[in-house]
Amino acid sequence: KIPIFIGAFIILIISGMMQYQTRSMPCPADKKQAYACMQARKVSMIIYVASVGIFIVGLLFAIIIPFFMEA
Fold first, then answer.
1. CA-to-CA distance for 9 and 62, rounded, in angstroms?
2. At a CB cut-off of 8 Å and minimum separation 6, what does 1 contact?
3. Predicted TM-score of the model (pTM)
């Protein structure tokens, strides 16, 4: 289970870096394309934040809580 969480953490970090780099890139000048671009960015950020939240909950229940229950 630990290698899976390490892999997921690395992927989330890479995804976060990509989100950060593309946040200031320009959208197309065409209004429809610009709107689609902004919507895609918003949806992408929502999915990223939800993924991080799910990762934290999974980490909590799979590793952190069982660690403290053994003691």
1. 14
2. 62, 63
3. 0.86
Q: Are 9 and 41 in contact (CB under 8 A)?
A: no
Q: Hey, what are 2's tokens?
A: 């630990």
Q: Which two tokens stand for residue 19?
A: 């989100």
Tokens of 3: 């290698």
Q: Tokens 């890479």, residue?
A: 14
Which residues, including other chains, have CB under 8 Å from residue 37's CB and lie 6 or more apart? 27, 28
For 20, list phi and psi in degrees, rounded to 5: -65, -40
Q: Are 63 and 5 in contact (CB under 8 A)?
A: yes
Helix, strand, coil percentages for the chain (3-state, nearest 5) = 85, 0, 15
| Tokens coding 13 | 């970090």
Q: What is the pLDDT of residues 25-51, one digit of tens each?
A: 999 999 999 999 999 999 999 999 999
